């Protein structure tokens, strides 16, 4: 049996468990796809060809012995901010980085579930921007239109899944960095509750705003990878109660009260929802209403939540820059953010951290009236490659806020959100919508996302393979 690029995570795991395919054969085909697509898509910073084949052969021995694990022998990818033993963690930066000694906790748990880590995917420098470009690796391109970015900062993971190079991948989300590329590549992207998937060896990443999440073509696959990666290191500061995301897929959520939140949260510069994106999100709202849910326009009481985000985000950048082995090679915008983070790293940061409890109370109260929020994931479709690369720091911030004003408040709150595909613009560019909930609401959000998927069947629509991959397959 030969699994093609359309095979999902669960389907691949079942085929391996049934003996229909070997992990070695599957990983060989995966590596060939990655190599063929690298020139056109450039999804990977590092490919672990030799190590992955060795891991596949070990998985085949376990499969032959009757061992059962959720992802035994399945090839997956992880973002280049995650530690993989024996490999460098460059996090989008220039320079030669030393290999790390140990897996990060999320990678360790994927291995414990039997997954084969085929490579590390590209991300912009320290994950700051909604595009995946830079002098360290070039430009990662969107499989739906290679003239456009797949988004960021988990753009390499999104591009790899959207192109069918791997069935699913881990990313991280500090201001929408899983949800934004998921929206712009027609994927499901789960940003889980803070602490659901460990960020260890950093107990808190970027002052607690960044979490690890999953990207896949279907809700079931994104949930399966989430369950496999979930869990904590003994020293993690955030340990939410366990949830079973996979069990929620296909479960009837009942009739819900859904708030359609179209107004961007407060930002210091203008942000406008483009009519074409608004129309796609409203169509999803209408579909939810047709499924029996009560949907009405209402916006969470965000207030000036942005004042709590900036100190945490920039202090996080300052921490990373202080550890960087090659600071002179960093982007000028990174150095500028680090300077601001050092200024805000005292009393403003402490005040921002304290404000989270107040925000939990105020925005949590909104969920006494509504069960779920439906909001745009971005205000615009993906920009063209290079559109933001050479901008000044201020101009980059303006462009980011204009395109992506909706995702970051849930990072401040630490609560779950799920991007679902919302369709395409007239130019064929993907856009998405977020399902947002209160603390530990992943199962409910997964239920609603799966309900939409059963109606819309977005996973059946694929981009054309990259030209290089089509040539390799000929």
From TrEMBL:
Domain Amidase as annotated: residue spans: 26-445
PROSITE patterns assigned: AMIDASES (PS00571)
Entry superkingdom: Bacteria
Pfam families the record matches: Amidase
TM annotation in the entry: none
GO MF, one example: catalytic activity
UniProt similarity note: Belongs to the amidase family.
Xref: PANTHER family: GLUTAMYL-TRNA(GLN) AMIDOTRANSFERASE SUBUNIT A, MITOCHONDRIAL, TRANSAMIDASE
Protein name: Amidase
Annotated source species: Streptomyces swartbergensis
Taxonomic lineage of the native organism: Bacteria, Bacillati, Actinomycetota, Actinomycetes, Kitasatosporales
